[in-house]
Protein 1
Amino acid sequence: MRLSRPSTPRLWTKLLALKGFAKNFSCGLLPILAMGSALLLTTSCAPAETKQMVSSGVDGEPEPKRVSEETMEAVQGSEASSDGSELDAILKKNPPTREKLDALLAIAAEQGHAANVRSLLAHGAKPDGNGDGAPLMAAATAGKTEVVDLLLEKGADPNKRTGDKPTILAELAATDQSATMARLLEAKADPNVSSHWVERRTRKLRFGNPSMTIADRYWTPLMIAASMGKSKMVETLLNHGSDKSLQSPEGTAYEIAKERGHSEAEKLLKP
């Protein structure tokens, strides 16, 4: 995304600060008006690469056919039609590029608009997005089971991910979305794949404020669920073939749960 540089250096600094601040919002759509031009930052929970594609061209280059405000409202707004006809009409009138269709699919999936997901797929969006599984990741972590089922039915691969980023199962393991986890496991998602995970632990101290430690881990979904005491998720993973004997530098899932004091998960994982 490119901005035309204002003539006043101080104003330019303020605009960059605003842009950085906007990116830290977790969800929503933030319009920033700068120097008479509208800078649109899409800040949904979909991956950053997806958001950039919607607001600019591929690789950050300006795209003549930007996704219109009308399209964005039809995809993620509360006015989205229940049958997807509104979005279908807009896409026929002003068809986006394939890359933007994939990005819009991830946003619609996160919102849980199954009709809009069907419409975007019909217009050429891929179930796996740009190849990183972003639509399925967005729907699964948001707990949109209807959209998860739809994407799997259309051929989305539950094992897709980008590089060493967490798998969909790894992201879900830290939540209470056990029903969605079961759907993905039944669709042949591999529960024994390790991926990078950032563990954040808060420890209570006898004196002073609680301390937080942040550490990089390389764990399976079962280890992640065990570390957070997600006993229902642990049970779901074990029932679908997760191997509790797998080792990490911090030990097995059982040892991780025991060290962190999660007794219920510990019982389920006991060798």
Protein 2
Amino acid sequence: MLFLLVCFPNVFLLLKVSSANISINGTRGEPLFWPCYHTFSEPFQPNNSLIYWQGCRKPHILLHAYVYGKEEFQHQNRSFKNRTTIFPDQLPSRNFSLIIEPLMLQDDQIDIEVIFRSQIKSTNRFCQTTVYVAAPFQEPKIEINRKEKTATCNTKGGFPEPEIKWSSGDRGTNLKPHKPSTVIFEEDGTFSVSSTVSIIGLQNVACEVYNPTSNQTLTATKEVSVPPPGNKSHQCPQPTEEPSTSERAGGEAADSAFNMPEDHEPKETVSLEENSQLTKL
């Protein structure tokens, strides 16, 4: 097993490299470093060597070429023009790595390998690799339709097609989409995705957008607070019985008694005996 030290600005990577089939992931618009390190028993002779970085499948796409001591671009595939870089000074130390910059969506799932030919040794094929390209999705947004009692999660601008999962934040359970997701393949090669779930009986929902190539997950949450079916949030007041005439009269009398003015005092009464004595006087 071999190790290759790769240096970029502010980044140092120690890569474990082998000649077995591997896969590498990259991001659209950024450089992709394809590590390849292979050893031979005989010394490297650049003036007697042919090296091709090309696609494994037919028709073979030529990414880069090194012919008898110098780089050759005449037969390079048009889609890789001015996008590939090798390390000529490190070829004697068997560093056959390649940089693709910028990485494009059209590079996704391309199978590439190195072909080495020399006058001394027969053709060698090594570093078979599959390239996977990702583009980050925009932050998902959740829209609530209270009339239909549904929530819709929308995102766009990413690649490849994402996986969308719904969950209930208050219950912590997964939710089944209301209907199959709507997936649109845009003109620029990216995807726009929309997914809908029912929110009946839920307090809040969460939508997760997972990119299988970049292994990135974006999450959006939303409070919904939709009452469950059959739950009446507003109730009409119960009608009251009309009081009878006697009850109304009694009530009015009671009210008049309680509403007596504060300065009103009951008059003093005089007995018959006291009245007769006052008459004699």
Protein 3
Amino acid sequence: MSSSSEEKEQHIPDIIELNLKSETIDHLFTEVGTLILKSPKILNTSAALREFQNLQKFWSKKGNELIEKEEEFFSKSVFPLCVNYCSFLDISEPLMFLGRSIKGIDLHVKKSPPSKTICMVLFHSIESYEHLTKDDKKRQKINIYWNNFLKNQIFLDRFMDLKDVKDYPKMIEEITRFDEKRKEPRFNVFAPAHCSMLGESWVKDQKEKAKILNISLSGLLIEHLSPYYINSILEIEPFLDNNNLYLWGKICRTDRREDPEGEKFTSGIKITNISEFDKIYLAKYLSTLNPLC
């Protein structure tokens, strides 16, 4: 399998259902419990069904607390749930379910909108999750859904409009990847920059310090400490050859990693707005460097 194919597979849930029939939370757990039985990761079907019956009882007691804790998801009509102890699962294989309800599912909680995107991740045990290394693709998949996709309105809108499950990998690729046919050559540049979400801060000292890893006339790759959502717009001030530039850029992809200094992120940025003066300066600066192969 090619590396690009592996990356596509990395982001695909185990089970995707585009036509959930449940209208209320009471029926959702039963429906999802039945749907996950399709997965070969389920080792005991009767135990799986019992666990989802227990989840229904758990929600009736703790639903309000969960909504308050994860309000940024529920306010977007997203229902996220991690279930940490599922003895019916293979110990080394977490299971991800992603479902869609066009009408929305009534959570029986006041002021909470109906949930339309349902994402559940099941683990054999919390220890089995903690056993996964930071670089494990199973763990990375969970992180990108919780930290990006389920908070990303572009992803949510595209998922609601999806016509066929077979089109899901293509949808994910379009959301997460740069266009592979780059129009401009890239150059290695280890230079500082300041960045922030568009309009977030006008004070340089309040902007995040980042490192530019490579750059072209159409985009750049930066390393930073704070997570940013895909399709967000950043204000970026690169410092190149003793000159400050100013540009806007759209986050096309982002990856999380650990190093001895702690958690870091690298994000691919497409330049969306730059003055003609700064563009001319950038072109002149890049002309003195050797492009990446």
Protein 4
Amino acid sequence: AVSHSGKQQSESEALLRRLLDEQRQSSIKEQASQQKALADMGEELKKARAELLTLHQELSAAKAALKLAAPKEKKPAPPSKNKLTLSGDPNVPVPEQVAEALRSNASRVLDLFRSWDANGDGEISRKEFHKSIPALGLDVAKSDIDALFEQWDSDGGGSLAYKELRKILNTRPAKKMALSGEGSIVDQLSDALKSNASRVFALFQSWDQDGDGEISRKEFHRAMPALGFDVPKADIDALFNRWDTDGGGSLAYRELKKLLTPGAPKRGNAPNGLKKVGNAMAAVSGMTATDNSKSH
């Protein structure tokens, strides 16, 4: 029995040693595998750093090349010591005072814009127009500058062609129209436009950039201050709606020409003759309907 027990103990110890040896070998292999993975990661990191350094160098070289290739930006001309001034007339809107000041100094204004035209496109943006006013010594509210810009930017494109600005600055504004002071503002406005039909039609034609022969509501609104009328928007809308009988939101030039012709009837109100015919037809229709109901 003692011999058998000793034999079992020896086998157990051998088994234990074998298990410990296997665990040790497995641990060594796992450790070696981890070390190899760390070494591989270190190599990948070195490669990534090298690639990043190369990209950084290429980017720096590209920036330097672009800087050398780009044309040098011209600095805006400094404001002149001889500042422009407004008339200060309380009866004249500020945008018109600014326009008059710019016209009176047309050569200076044109020289200023020419010095700012770095890309040579011959266009004056809204931003450049805003910058020019204080540069010329005028302290004017942004809303007034916008109002003048929009009046001169007839096509609404957001920029003024240099040639067109030169034409505007060298052209004296036409005499303003005035309302009669008799009747409703809408009727007065209608009569004033008819009395100056040629000017009105010429203005709309000059704004018809796409040649569609149509006057939009927005163009109709812009025309009133351009013609010298200080009229509430509601009255301008009322006249537009009166003439735009189909509610399409625009007026055809051909139709406007008829409306502005002396003696033309007011749109939106049928002539008396037509009204009488319409009333007679309605009466006949009513009588026919009554007879039909009686017969049934």
